Amino acid sequence: MLDIIIRRALDIVGRTERLIEASRRLLDSEGLDEVEVYELDYEIERLGDAVFFVGEAIRSLARTVECWPQAAQAHGIHGTLH
Question: What is the pTM assigned to this prediction?
Answer without folding.
Answer: 0.58
